[in-house]
Amino acid sequence: MSSPVPTPALLNRTPGERDATQPRETAKRQADPGRSHNCESRRGGTGSPASTSARLNRTRLAVLAAVLGIAATTAPTTALAQPIGQCTPPSETPVTTASWAQQRMAADRAWPLTRGDVIVGVVDTGVSATAPALSGAVLPGTDLQGGPGNGDCFGRGTFLASLIAARPSSDPHVPFTGVAPEAKIFPVRVSDDPPKIQDHAGLANSIAKGIKAAVDGGARVVAVGLVATLDMPDLRAAIAYASERDVLVIAPAAVPKKGQLAFPARIPGVLAVAPVGPEGPVQSPTYGADPAIAAPAQQLVGVAPQGAGHRLSSGNELAVAYVAGAAALVRAYHPALPAPEVAARLLNAADHPSTPLPNKVIGYGVVDPFAAVTTIPNTDPPATPVPEDLAVPKPAVPDPAPAARALWLAGSITAAALLLAGPVIAAAARRRREN
């Protein structure tokens, strides 16, 4: 049974969104002064009035869907804002049609050559190792507050990781797969609740620690899902650290408010990514860095930290996942290619706009994973053009003989004519005198 098309009202959500069903209440909330959130239970929860309300709400939604003729059993849950102190609920409903973004990327064309068997760091909210679509793909990683990073309360890090490296489903009717389905994810948890972050200087320093942790964890590509609006020396040092170790860092170019700056995207050496939607570039984008490349970021299908189903979400920061997945394919197929050349290959192989490059909205265009892997760059030096001989030859000295012959002939003909006509003229003159 095909999946109904979600309505725009359900799809056009803001970044940091969660599922349509009410989130579960966590089993308990442990006070932890080292965190700026109340999201304690990352891997489960117990029943509560909130969960009872959720069941009632789901029942009402199912009845409403039946009345409207909607196949509720095939529709993915849609992201909503996460209430404070609660984790993202499981997604149980699989999507049975490929999303527009997955079709647009068409990364499966590159899979006969490479499936991206490299480590990709995801610096965000952690990544759930229990998500079925990421089974076997998630390394322990690290939490900047201590412990591993392979759990995810908020859910965005898991969503990003699924776009990068989700494994193919055993169900042939479920087409969802990440761009690089053999990549390994090194998760770094910086925050469990990004919307609550107010200290952007502290965030910049935390992102710096996360990048270094991912590099030390063996990542060859690092996808940063967070945006700091302040530049800090530690962050620049972390980018230099990654560059020295041949690691490509990818980050969002968009910012929440006009006038803000986007870090680490503004730092040289970082690949800044712009968001696009099903109809093209997003309307009135707000950039804190000049975008180098673009990728899908709206109406995306991904996975939640728990559950075998899928969810829908939109967010400018999600675009980094597709570029990171494409970079993983390139790095796996061209292992000797240094990070700057990987970035250059992504830009040169992108689906370029018709405007001069880079375009101020989408940079060098929308990422094309297959072309990035297979394009053969022209490395031949430009040929030196052969100098043209522009000398005009002097005219030859004219030969007077033909002209002389022509004059002699003309004179001879004239003399002959006079000789022949002379007697006739003389006879005519005598007759006139006699008369």
TrEMBL record:
Gene3D superfamilies: Peptidase S8/S53 domain (3.40.50.200). The keyword Cytoplasm does not apply. It comes from the Bacteria. The keyword RNA-binding does not apply. Residues 15-43 have a biased composition (Basic and acidic residues). Pfam families: Peptidase_S8. This is Subtilase family protein.
